[in-house]
Amino acid sequence: MSRHLFCFGLGYSARVLARRLLADGWTVSGTVQDPARSPAPDGVTLWAYDGSAPLPLRAFDGVSHVLSSVPPAREGGDSATETDGGDPVLRHHAALLRQKLADGSLTWAGYLSTTGVYGDHHGGWVDEDTPIDPDLPRSARRARAEAAWLALGGPVHAFRLAGIYGPGRSALDSMRNGTARRIIKPGQVFCRIHVEDIAAVVQASMQQPNPGRIYNVCDDEPAPPQDVIAHAATLLGLPVPPDLPIEQASLSPMAASFYADSRRVRNDRIKQELGVTLTHPTYRHGLEAQLRAG
User: Fold this and answer.
1) How many CB atoms are closer than 10 A to CB 211?
2) Contact 202, 160 (CB under 8 A)
3) Where are the chain's structural domains?
4) Residues 202-241: tens digit of each pLDDT
């Protein structure tokens, strides 16, 4: 049986998954916008894809699994259609993917979405059965793209990711480079997930497809963002940055949007259905492991 994963958008999370699969004997290929700027990891075949034209059919030779992390197009750019949900991959490849899912040559497909599709729940809990209600434009775009992927039919899965962190992208890094701020918004909580645990969840799904299933991918402990910064500072033996009320933070519109929603996300499904045991069940586990690894 062929074990060949094709990743649309071979970025931070997909490269961790690729490394795990390559070690297990898989073939991995995928896309980046500019291979000269984002060279392939050892053993991975790269294709250039910017959404302007379809890939050649030979790119999919022998592919058995497809994962996409490509963000949907912004309104005002390339127009979204009812069938592609504004997704740059489906714009050119929906018919091909639908055919391969239907004839069984593609045995699994996954789309990396976001927990942002749930909208603001004022710190309340949500799970996969909670109706989505995105209140930010980028979350609404993700919701439409997610729906378009699931509408392909067959063994397609959506993974709603919390805030991603890991080596090079964590509170440890922001403390070290001097950019960390403890912005305080009373009642605000974020959910997060270590990049290695994302790869573990996706890999578990690939081993046991459940067509049309949606999975929340987050750790066990939603927490205020200032607590994460404080723990990182303590681990590094650095002074904890002072409290900074959000009203005084002079946030950019993009940064401010991250504080617009507050919710706690349940992750029972990845444990009960996929049998996943998180390596980093809280931000403390993740940061401490990262520090040990150097």
Assistant:
1) 13
2) no
3) 4-164+193-218+264-278
4) 999 999 999 999 999 999 999 999 999 999 999 999 999 9
The fold for domain 4-164+193-218+264-278 equals Rossmann fold (3.40.50)
CA nearest neighbour of 158 among 271, 279, 268, 67: 67
Q: What is the pTM (predicted TM-score) of this model?
A: 0.95
158-208: pLDDT as tens digits: 999 999 999 999 999 999 999 999 999 999 999 999 999 999 999 999 999
Structure tokens at 179: 């950019």
Chain centre distance of CA 262: 18
What's the token pair of residue 216?
Answer: 């929340």
List, in order, residues 6 or more apart from 205 with CB less than 8 Å away: 108, 110, 157, 159, 213, 215, 274
Residue 157 contacts residue 109 (beta carbons within 8 Å): yes
